[in-house]
Amino acid sequence: MNIEEYREYCLSIKGVTESFPFDEHTLVYKIMDKMFTFAPLNPKEGRFWADTKCDTARSAELMEQYNGISFGPYSDKKYWITIYLESDVPDSLIKELINHSIEEVVKKLPKKKQEKYYATLR
């Protein structure tokens, strides 16, 4: 998956907004006004990457399986992972991890907001 495919996938998810709250070089995607993934538009050592929220236990498993998944340089290592987009991580898994990140964000919202979010999916 390249950076444009990542962007297209994020924008295809119902209720997602795109913004640049940090600077003009970092794409940020939110659901219900909460960030669930971000990606710098400047590659690191020639490689594009994205950070997503991830369950702690799952993070450890993923990092053992894939060279393209690690803890990110700019985020809380307990809740966020970095995925190198053009690596050994399959596109289907990247999409799954983006969706998992949304789930991680939504489950921490107040019940009313969770209900509102799930109602928009119907």
UniProtKB/TrEMBL annotation:
The keyword Cytoplasm is assigned to this record: no
Gene Ontology molecular functions: DNA binding
Database matches in Gene3D superfamilies: 3.90.1150.30
InterPro entries in the cross-refs: YjbR, YjbR-like_sf, YjbR/MT2646/Rv2570-like
Keyword DNA-binding attached: yes
Keywords from the named record: DNA-binding
Protein known as: Predicted DNA-binding protein, MmcQ/YjbR family
Source organism of the structure: Bacteroides stercorirosoris
Upper lineage: Bacteria, Pseudomonadati, Bacteroidota, Bacteroidia, Bacteroidales
